[in-house]
Amino acid sequence: MITYVKSHEEHATTPLTISPPHHAWPSKILKNLLGGREVGKGTFCIHQDRGLTFYADYKAWDEGSDYLLNKIKSDSRLVRKVRVESEKIVGVILCTIRKFEYQNASTWPNKKIANFLEVTYKLSNDLSAYGFIPVFSDHFFHKFTHLLKDIVKGYSKGTVVTLPVPEIIHIVTSYTKFIPSKLARIAFLKLVLKVKGNKLTQTEENKFKEYYYRWFWVSFGQFGPRMQLNEVISGALNLIKNKSRAKKELVNLLNYPKETKKKQVELEKKLGLTGAQKRLFKVARDFMYLKGLRMEVLFGVDAAWEKILEEISKRFYLKKEFLYYASIWELSSMLRGGKALDEKMLRERSRYCVWLAISENKHRVYTGREARTFLKSLKYKDEKINEILVIHGTVASLGYAKGKVKIVNKTSEICKVENGDILVSVATHPGLVPAMKKAIAFITDSGGITSHAAIVAREMKKPCIIGTKVATKVLKDGDMVEIDTKKGDVRKV
Predict the structure, then answer these.
(1) Distances (CA, A) of 52 to 18, 139, 214, 295
(2) Euclidean distance between CA atoms 269 and 265, whole angstroms
(3) CA 93, CA 122: separation in Å to the nearest integer?
(4) Residues of the chain with pLDDT under 70
(5) In the prediction, which pLDDT does 37 show?
(6) N or C: which end of the chain has fewer CB within 10 A?
(7) What is the pLDDT of residues 69-127, one digit of tens each?
(8) What is each CA distance from 134 to 38, 150, 219, 223, 290, in whole angstroms?
(9) Contact predicate 395/488, CB 8 Å
(10) 171: exposed, middle or buried (C-beta count within 10 Å: 0-12, 13-18, 19+)?
């Protein structure tokens, strides 16, 4: 009998928006990349209150993760293939959604909308399948992170390097390729610096309009709200008043890759790493870049789907909020003249449902009593928590922080966070970014060095400890804690 483990929790998500990555787990692409291993067979999500808990076959994931780690160490072609194929798919997705943004979906016939959904879903599913190699190497078991730590621990002793292990890991795993949000910021700053006066000419305003259609999606998340053109224009007008700040920011952004690479080369030389070990750290950098790339590009698909759902809602008299609980195949079938969706059924799914991924294109949905009966028939791996004095995790971003805990998992909870608080979450997501900007540090239960929290923390230059497994269970709102990124410890004070 399969033993299932809760490997992930996520909020601000629905069955539709999470379907490309969820159904990528049992996909043929991922199976082939893992040497025929079916690590995603039988994975399921419990959806409730726009959040999910993800369950997987414990043994299959453990064994598959071991296989992947050995493959990464022995075969550089695997990572190269994942990077090349991911970037190729990204190019097609961006071309597709940028073209769509210029068009008026209200003039499209139903079959054209169905085709758009099917095409973008397939692209997103394939991107997720390749993108899960970085995730699977470190998700839940954190095996890749532990491998990198062991390398640094073994080589930092007796060398001229005096930096603590977490700081070394932070430097040598920092990616030096720009993810979309950084490319968007660079493009925006360059446009600002080209403006000659204090106001925009019509030509200059058109340039910002072109920018908007190119980059509208980078901060969308799964539900938006989407960036508005007037926000882009007002942001430009404000920054034009302080071009020296814009120039300084642009210079810092453009210099970052070169400066970071220099630090990495110097550090690897001081440590005396072998060629094989240097390659593993390069893999880590590639993985972090690919995770950020996939995450942000899928936001673009979600932004396009949001507009599509708005149109479907009008045509079929179904509330848009409930359409997020339909599958791509159900929506496509309805658009092509098949069975109309029942809003009552979708409403029931929105309250509570279990979504079982069978393959890239097949699923099973359980609701109500049927869902609870299904869950009771399964075997789960227990996670026992004893009295804990010090919470330990993986350092994702360096720094010191001391402040009050605010546990935030849902977007409805971000109002709890005030400047100076420490945000504690099962796993952060784009909907929590406003709270993350206020917080001085982050702590999460799950995630490895390629997680959302890790990426955002590095971008914001805030201390972050991830993968504690128990932080949200041990800590409560108002607790005063201290983060020690030299060891990866969180202590109550």
Answers:
(1) 9, 16, 31, 17
(2) 6
(3) 10
(4) 156-159, 383-389
(5) 93
(6) N
(7) 999 999 999 999 999 999 999 999 999 999 999 999 999 999 999 999 999 999 999 99
(8) 17, 19, 22, 25, 8
(9) yes
(10) middle
What would you measure as the largest C-alpha separation in the chain, in angstroms? 71
Q: How far apart are CA 402 and CA 282, in angstroms?
A: 33
The pair of structure tokens assigned to 346 is 């979708």
Q: Count Cβ atoms below 10 Å from residue 395 Cβ, excluding itself.
A: 29
What is the structure's pLDDT at 407?
Answer: 95
Which pair of tokens denotes residue 37?
């291993």
Cβ atoms < 10 Å from Cβ of 197: 8
Q: Which residues of 404-443 are buried (b: 16+ CB within 10 A; e: fewer)?
A: ebbbbbebebbeebeeebbbbbbbbbbbbbebbeebbbbb
Which sequence spans correspond to the domains of the chain?
3-140+292-380, 390-492
Q: How far is CA 116 from CA 38, 94, 119, 123, in A?
A: 29, 13, 5, 11
Identify the CATH homologous superfamily for domain 390-492. Answer: Phosphohistidine domain (3.50.30.10)
